[in-house]
Amino acid sequence: xxxxxxxxxxxxxxxxxxxxxxxxxxxxxxxxxxxxxxxxxxxxxxxxxxxxxxxxxxxxxxxxxxxxxxxxxxxxxxxxxxxxxxxxxxxxxxxxxxxxxxxxxxxxxxxxxxxxxxxxxxxxxxxxxxxxxxxxxxxxxxxxxxxxxxxxxxxxxxxxxxxxxxxxxxxxxxxxxxxxxxxxxxxxxxxxxxxxxxxxxxxxxxxxxxxxxxxxxxxxxxxxxxxxxxxxxxxxxxxxxxxxxxxxxxxxxxxxxxxxxxxxxxxxxxxxxxxxxxxxxxxxxxxxxxxxxxxxxxxxxxxxxxxxxxxxxxxxxxxxxxxxxxxxxxxxxxxxxxxxxxxxxxxxxxxxxxxxxxxxxxxxxxxxxxxxxxxxxxxxxxxxxxxxxxxxxxxxxxxxxxxxxxxxxxxxxxxxxxxxxxxxxxxxxxxxxxxxxxxxxxxxxxxxx
Length: 449
Hints:
The chain is about 35% helix and about 20% strand. The protein has about 450 residues and is an alpha+beta fold.
């Protein structure tokens, strides 16, 4: 028990340091400043016998790698990957300073507490403990603290996979998403993210004709047309697709049979989600069975008395695995209908990639399930789909199985986690930090030994 307390204390303090470093990624190449957390991690690993490698894609955009080499070149290499950047924050919506990393009653508050500095810290603690304890495995363990995940990974995992492939060569990857206990009648379910949707963002440029704002009658106002475009995208209903991972996940939740059947029926899932009182499940059901279109940013107009001739709309499109960019374009044209002729569609760089999937039945998942169920008695590991993006995609595109996992206590209800990702009052309990750190250490001992 004393050792468990030491682990919890160590990982809590490392997490607080990473939060305070405030590596905020706005999407600009000059943001992030992840080198601050790389410095902190190098200091953390000092004295453990581990050597650190630094990889910089742009000034300040630094990733860190350390490894425990295996004895057998034929044995698998496992890469534990956590990102060090976080998304911007609006402090006025928080109950506590988002970068003070306050520890209150066993809860650490701060931006990145669950996305994903908690796992970045717990993976680091597990790696250091293994090294300091003389761990000499057959397979190789690689720890990667990576930059730029929150803006697509171009300056982090994407840079490493394409420019430094030997540095991140591996057979399996574990990164963020999953492991929050979902209560069911026969025990908690722990989701392992086996796949994620593809990022197919589009910029829609709506065209009109300029004129004087004092004479708006029968004018070609691009903003008015843009409003109709946004409404059509919001109301668009593409066909549902039921993936095996979604079907298995729903079955594992032990819902009422009629509800489970409806949520896995492509003809009924939309209406069923629309009628659910459980908003978290409704949103998950919709996103995991449909390619989604979310118009989130609009720019247009030059002056209050000038009718605009151009409005830009940024649309976050997330495609299900198996749906390629050409199908996304077809759906977009279908959604716009007769307005398509008024719109020019542009694809931002690196935003025309499909979703990714990894098999659930692998030796690594078997070990994850064994260790997780031992730490959380009565639990069951189930496959799931991540609706957001992670750095796992870079490895799946290369044919390397990649998974999202962690391990959380029940201190914070599972329904609150979706609200905290990129939201207000992000926080994590120290028991969850302890569980994840112990899990990574045990998984490495069992899988790589």
